[in-house]
Amino acid sequence: MTDRLSRRRLLSGSIALAAAVACPLCRPAEADEWGYRGEHGPAHWGHLKPEFNTCSTGKLQTPIDLRAPLSGSRDLIQRDYKPMPLKIVNNGHTIQVNAAPGSSVTIEAERYELLQFHFHHPSEHLLAGKPKSLEAHYVHRNAAGKLAVIGVFYDPGAKPLAAFEPIWAAMPSQEGPEREVPGVTLALDPAFPVKPRHFRYQGSLTTPPCSEGVTWIVYAQPVAISLGQAQAFAKLFPLNARPVQPLNRRTLLVTG
Question: What is the pTM of this model?
């Protein structure tokens, strides 16, 4: 019993650290506090804990259905992702890769440091009412502590996405602490679409505490992965996607 308690505390500490990277301004939620099904599922998040209240009362929630956007002025988005070691964790809700310092995205002259990226199956955003097989969220933070998340869709194609092969090979099947995979360097640019067309809106985190004030950019063109890659992730996480939320009075822009 003592060993089980010690292991649980160790895992909780690792999960809290991973959550803090995902949302440095929020109090992290432990893996057993919420989920995607049943009484701990998305419909109940706002009532599980007082600090999760925004999940049910917020008016700027993510994800949304990306449909009927307004044409916006051309956004200046420049990614500057450096080669990075593979630091990977199964935090109980997803597979997450924690970024080494130095990679960033510049959005309209504002620099945001890449903190981590993780995956959802099926996609959390819908594209004109339809989900994609997988969606990655690349989470960034600027000097003022504000978050910007870039979403990329992935759908099965003819061959595996080589940029993801090291991640898929190292994916932990069980929840546990972060580990660095020796001798592996990631290059992320091939994991992004060639076409620049993207949606932009103001939203929230898609997991508790669902904090708002997050700038969202979601590319319209899916990137091809193999059916095997899609199935391997779905085997670990059959469902880890929050349902779409009302747009309310927000403006959804599309550029590119």
Answer: 0.88
